[in-house]
């Protein structure tokens, strides 16, 4: 074996959220076509599961950052701060 990563099988964890979502979309389209051999379908499914976990982790981290920036109320929920609007018109 050459040790080279096959196309479409790059390290999942090094993708941005947007890249992971885009690749997930590609995988879903290919799997929905139903024209793939079983082994290729399983490989794509496995990659999709990893990407799904990655995107969920990135969303959880983003939510945590937002909660840190806004603070957490006594009920354990993020404080909601109204967005200021200019009413001096």
SSE layout and pairings?
Elements: H1 17-33, H2 38-70
Helix pairs in contact: 1-2
Characterization of the model:
The protein is mainly alpha-helical. Helix 1 packs antiparallel against helix 2. It is elongated and about 55 Å long. It is built from 2 helices and no strands.
Keywords:
89 residues; mainly alpha; Helix Hairpins; 0% strand; disordered N terminus
Specify the overall morphology: elongated
Oligomer: single chain
Rounded to an integer in angstroms, the radius of gyration calculated over CA atoms is 20 Å
In round numbers, the mean pLDDT is 81
Short note summarizing the structure:
This protein has 89 residues and is mainly alpha-helical.
